[in-house]
TrEMBL record:
Highest taxon, organism lineage: Bacteria
Domain ABC transporter: 6-239
Name of the protein: ABC transporter ATP-binding protein
Species this chain originates from: Thauera sinica
Residue ranges that the Swiss-Prot or TrEMBL entry lists as coiled coil: none
GO MF annotation: an example: ATP binding
Annotated InterPro entries: AAA+_ATPase, ABC_AA/LPS_Transport, ABC_transporter-like_ATP-bd, P-loop_NTPase
Keyword vocabulary terms for this entry: ATP-binding, Cell membrane, Membrane, Nucleotide-binding, Transport
One Pfam family in the UniProt entry: ABC_tran
């Protein structure tokens, strides 16, 4: 069997007395789209921080394309193809939308200026932001800030895209458009891990689900089986078995 694109191996992270991830292990095959569910505070965003290098595990490792990347800083992981959107958008507010993307393309994907411009025009188009290209990022609506968050991640030319709750607050129509965008990104060969509370949108995209509770893997499997499982009904959805 070929090496997974991403593998977390018993990754634990503690803040004081709080064990935020607890020997968390899972893997992602190349080309796969994996959904992540779990209650608020379960440790999902921290898991992304461990993958991107924003946070180092106290114990455990992160492997990417077979390499132990645990010691690497976020910039090196980004250069290797790990891109990420943040749950709370934090664009470079005083720069235009296009400039935000160019920064991602030049510093994240190490493109030269000309290549970066060409790439970012495509990203604007793909994310529905072309008409906002020259607007200051700090003046965008929430919807467009979310689009920009996705666009900034794409600007870095990720092979692995980590999406953190990008569908929250969208109308049904907007969520459908987002699903189409993510499907198109996948069709280009990008592997995806998507943390999302908007379950309908998530299920429209992912091949497999994992559920995290108290920082540990509660269950994993095909979406239908996971959604019907007793653990998920009890813990995630608050329904008694
Ligand atoms: N830097 C930090 N310092 C202290 N505690 C933290 C830190 N980062 C996260 N936590 C705590 O760790 C727990 C898990 O947070 P995390 O953001 O990973 O959860 P989550 O599953 O992504 O939650 P949500 O669905 O609400 O976004 C929370 O109790 C949070 O307050």
């Amino acid at each position: 069997m070929s090496e997974p694109l991403l593998r977390l191996h018993q990754a634990s992270k503690r803040y004081g007395a709080l064990k935020v991830t607890d020997e968390l292990s899972f893997s992602l095959a190349e080309g796969e789209a994996l959904g992540v569910l779990g209650p608020n505070g379960a440790g999902k965003s921290t898991m992304f921080n461990l993958i991107t290098g924003d946070v180092r595990p106290d114990v455990g490792q992160v492997f990417y394309a077979g390499e132990d990347i645990t010691p690497l800083p976020p910039s090196a992981r980004c250069h290797k193809g790990i891109g990420r959107s943040y749950q709370v958008p934090h664009p470079l507010a005083g720069m235009t939308v296009f400039e935000n993307l160019v920064v991602g393309a030049m510093y994240g994907a190490l493109l030269d200026e000309e290549e970066a411009y060409e790439h970012c025009v495509g990203v604007l188009d793909r994310t529905g932001l072309s008409h906002r290209a020259n607007q200051l990022a700090g003046t965008l609506t929430l919807l467009d800030r979310k689009r920009l968050e996705l666009a900034r991640a794409l600007a870095t030319k990720p092979k692995l895209l980590l999406l953190d709750e990008i569908a929250g607050g969208l109308t049904d129509q907007e969520a459908k458009a987002l699903v189409c965008t993510i499907d198109a990104i996948r069709a280009d060969g990008v592997s995806i891990v998507w943390i999302e509370h908007v379950v309908n949108a998530l299920l429209a995209v992912v091949d497999r689900l994992i559920v995290i509770n108290f920082g540990a893997l509660l269950t994993e499997g095909d979406p239908e089986t996971v959604m019907a499982s007793r653990e998920v009904r009890e813990v995630y959805m608050g329904i008694e078995a």
